[in-house]
Amino acid sequence: MSELSVNPDLANERLNATFDVENLTNLIYGGPEKVKRRRQIHKVASEDPFYKKLKPWSYCSVEEQYENALAKHNHIKESIDKLELNGFDDLYYYKSCVTPHEPGPLDVHYGMCVTPHEPGPLDVHYGMFIPTIEQQGTAEQKEKWLASAYSEEIKGTYAQTEMGHGTFLRGLETTATYDPKTKEFILNSPTLTSIKYWPAALGKTTNHCVVVAQLFTQGTCHGIHTFMLQTRSLVDHSVLPGIEVGVIGNKFGFGTNDNGYLKLTNVRIPRDNMLMRYSKVLEDGTYIKPQNSKVSYGVMVYVRSMIVKQAFSALAEACVISIRYSAVRRQSETVPGGIEPQILDYQTQQYRLFPLLATAYALYFAGNYMSTAYSEGSQKIEKGQLEELPQLHALSAGLKAFTSYAASSGVEVCRICCGGHGYSQASGLPKIYVSVVPACTYEGENTVMMLQVARYLMKCYKDKQQGSQLPGFVSYIAEIPQKRSCMDEHLSFSCLVKAYKHRAARLIEAAAKQMQSLIQSGSPAHEAWNKSSVQLLWAANAHCHLFCVQNFVENIERSSGDSRTNEVLKAVCQLYSIHGILENLGEFIHDGFLSGQQIDYLQKAMFKLFEIIRPNAVALVDAFDIPDQVLQSCLGRYDGQVYQALYDYARMAPMNQTEIHSTYYTHLRPLMNPLTSNYSKL
Amino acid sequence: MSELSVNPDLANERLNATFDVENLTNLIYGGPEKVKRRRQIHKVASEDPFYKKLKPWSYCSVEEQYENALAKHNHIKESIDKLELNGFDDLYYYKSCVTPHEPGPLDVHYGMCVTPHEPGPLDVHYGMFIPTIEQQGTAEQKEKWLASAYSEEIKGTYAQTEMGHGTFLRGLETTATYDPKTKEFILNSPTLTSIKYWPAALGKTTNHCVVVAQLFTQGTCHGIHTFMLQTRSLVDHSVLPGIEVGVIGNKFGFGTNDNGYLKLTNVRIPRDNMLMRYSKVLEDGTYIKPQNSKVSYGVMVYVRSMIVKQAFSALAEACVISIRYSAVRRQSETVPGGIEPQILDYQTQQYRLFPLLATAYALYFAGNYMSTAYSEGSQKIEKGQLEELPQLHALSAGLKAFTSYAASSGVEVCRICCGGHGYSQASGLPKIYVSVVPACTYEGENTVMMLQVARYLMKCYKDKQQGSQLPGFVSYIAEIPQKRSCMDEHLSFSCLVKAYKHRAARLIEAAAKQMQSLIQSGSPAHEAWNKSSVQLLWAANAHCHLFCVQNFVENIERSSGDSRTNEVLKAVCQLYSIHGILENLGEFIHDGFLSGQQIDYLQKAMFKLFEIIRPNAVALVDAFDIPDQVLQSCLGRYDGQVYQALYDYARMAPMNQTEIHSTYYTHLRPLMNPLTSNYSKL
Prior knowledge:
The structure is a homodimer of 682-residue chains.
Chain A: H1 8-16, H2 21-29, H3 32-47, H4 49-52, H5 62-83, H6 87-98, E1 106-107, E2 112-113, H7 123-136, H8 139-150, E3 156-159, E4 175-179, E5 184-188, E6 196-197, E7 208-217, E8 220-230, E9 243-247, E10 260-264, E11 267-270, E12 280-281, E13 287-288, H9 297-328, H10 347-382, H11 389-417, H12 429-436, H13 446-465, H14 493-520, H15 525-531, H16 533-557, H17 563-583, H18 585-589, H19 596-613, H20 617-622, H21 628-631, H22 642-651, H23 663-668
Parallel strand pairs in A: 3-7, 4-7
Antiparallel strand pairs in A: 1-2, 4-5, 5-11, 6-10, 7-8, 9-10, 12-13
Helix pairs in contact in A: 2-3, 3-6, 7-8, 9-10, 9-11, 9-12, 10-11, 10-16, 10-17, 11-12, 11-13, 11-16, 13-14, 13-16, 14-15, 14-16, 14-17, 16-17, 17-19
């Protein structure tokens, strides 16, 4: 594509913003120094000819996507040394620049890999395989495997999920039975449903994996444990005896990864291949229990906090694309024969996009909170201070679910807001969607996560009934309820937050009472739980929503930005809070908490906020500072040259490289001009 | 896959249903004779070895998907004669059996093609190209083109949408300028945005198209008209001079279709190539206006009624898959160590799936209504009775938007309800989603459609204010409003429908008053409209929702089924009505129409209905009688052998046909065991 100037509509938008974009970018990414470093890295990555010569992913077959991902991995590995990239931020950002929508964070320090978008085939090796050895292996085991793992001689994955079991780990069926005669474990997939299914990179890439299996020794099952298993030869990559391994076939997205299946038939591994830092099996088969079973709590919190950040990224990217495109796209007419307005001027478009933009900011602050809370929390755990862990754990589960759902559904709205062109891979939006939506399922299915939150809330409610003090954020459950909202036409943040508290507290109480009444009328506890679970879901959702609103408000109130930036952010935060009430109005007014008059204030305020945000909409997405190379979108380009880009995208399609497609000779010409058949009646 | 018996859980579900599935199937498809015929056709199609030997679509590249679609087209054409298939129902059903999720109805009689799922490359030839000639061509023009079109010597498409213009047709920029010297039109794409973009089969398949362009003659623009254009040679398929044509590149779905772009540079076509049945350009360039400009009204209604039916199909298919799978899938435990329940027993799963099942039935009845209304309406149009046309037109626009959105979002919920496996193409669900979701955009973008409904409603409201009688369904706008709902714990249909009427009437009034107040305070009409458009959207949506509820209720009340079938359908209809209120509660209680007590009745009733529907859920989806061959889903199989199917799907993946993938030699082995690099810090 030739060099073009910025689309004048987009240039105008940037002129008319009421605040300085750079200030907001600095606020988002932690100061001008960090922003400068991001941009340096991006520049290097964008100028590297290696990435430019790769075929665009949407024109690749699944096998080509996989092949490109491996090629990129190798090139990234080389480049990191050459470019002297260091530290998590540098590496993460470099990787996200060169694998658009695939910025899988690989973080040995924190010990886990989350795959926000399309994961590379080696991500799980660095993100889960190595960390598992580091955390669960003995000193000898680390000595034995880590060096070859780092040199990629052995490449591994984490084989947990089975065809029949995902989130519910206790149900896993793979067995590891200890044989004291040979001092080996015998691994088996005893049922069809026990076949490992979904682990990343299991199909073709890796030659090792950590298998999660039920440990049997001396005739007793001791629950799930982890075992090191070699699946392929280090000499020629052939599959070892007793093992059937392959890819699981094509998916909605994730083409870069060879998610695989694994069937085990009497595969023997040495006793030493059980990761024995915590639990042990002695030579004679005696089982030694772990000292502390809560070790993995912190890791889960970390993984979920990463998902919140990635939910933000996905929604932010989608907002950049759809809002820039809506400023460029002109359509229809409001006055007959008049100029066609930018579609961003239609109130209906603002109604769909601006609340999502506000949500992206809310998710950004929620992600920040979770990272900080995780770091502080893990320091406390180190010191043995575990009081806040349940609250943090519940919040991380809830925010994982709340934000992954908000981002996924929001990305699709952004896509549909781009009309027909949103359906083309050229928009970049389908890829973002298929990359973020599995976050609703992996690392804990969202409904299950929300019910974990609910279980915690029910405990809090009981504590409150028994007069105990509730910790930190959940203390609102014990506050004396207002009957009527304090809201007037000024819609202060304080009254808005109180409304969310009221709603959450009411729904928590309603769910608790429903449970209690079922139990009193003779239902067993598990049945009462199930028969209240939709109400528990509502309560948990309201709790998470309250957190996002309150946390956004607190960030705004202590913001260090300049006054014009703060003013815009304040409007965005108000929109997030007000729109959330209007979208869930029934839950707020079921008990008459808000009057008709107050609802009218909220509606009027929402429409007014659209007008305040309108001139700043493009600047608010520009502030995310996401380069074109990451967006990979013809519609979301910084220069707004949308139509030229769409035309170029079409022309480079593989099917356009010949004037006449081969099917003309094989399928079309042979049937031209036959006797007219009944088909014509169709 | 080997022959297997039915999964016992699924067999049990079928035993425990309280009604006879066959009765409901007969009710849905118009009696036992029609059901028998469907099944005969399905049997023939499913036994045809041609279809069995095609590679499953999800393992095909986009080019292979296109090639397979052409091969199928040719085979279908042959088969129709051989099998003596006749009439729209036969042909449509045969085609839907052999092109799963691609049942593009080809209906010359009604003159339009709607592409519900993946359209074949020749669908638009039969569905739009030929009908356009039939309807808009003169006798000579039909004589000239139709025979070769039916014989497929000429293959055409309908080139309307441009890069810069979709729903707003007046904005199209392609020009057709008459040159009286040569008696030709000169076709041009004067701007980048005027390039035709998206027309089906334009890229590689077709050699002709109908171009929609602005007609210029004698220095005046006369608006959009249709022109016959040959794009490729009939001898060798080469592209003709002045024409640039190709595919637009890969999309979210629709891999079977070569949607294309077309750029025209001074392409001259004879004067006779303008379709001149209505408007004419004489030899000297004189323009003759059409007699009647409302001809296409009926066609639009037809197309939209087809979209309603297809929205039903998509949602019904997704419900079949997710409900059968939820009966087979067992997960987690309610009692520690107890048997894992079917996930369909979880109230949270019921809360997500049963309202969608109810919606599928509501959409089914809405689609039926629209077909009948269209047939009756077109007879009246023939007789010149045009009174009901505006109401029908508004309803068709509204239901197109309401149902395509309900189905699209519902299909994704069904997919996510299947957990991780829902993300695999093996589930069939991603394909259904990407096939139905463009219906929110094509044939009139949903927001634009809803605003058309709103325009009609505003007119009705004005008529009411002026004391005019309102026609048929919209007469509720003029009913004297109740202040309080009549609902008691029995939740009669009559009170439920009245609640929907109240909500719609209130929102219509609120939008109208908002507009009037803006106009009174000096806003120009177009600005008042835009500033009220979100409220107009709410009003239109409530209107369409009311229609679906009321129409469902009316069908239940006059149902010809047996009593046990009716009882279940009644529960489904109640759930649809009650759930719709609870999901939009704010709109129903904003003005205090429902009391807290009444809301409690509704909530209790919803949970109670889940228990009534639970034993019938599988039977209710079985009744749709959708064969496995159409579902193409490992999770939704009639026999419930889900895990065997998933295992088989994985094993047949192309990447599993060799033990070691070629990338091992090219990408993995070369980098094994290098010096440990900084990458390990990632």
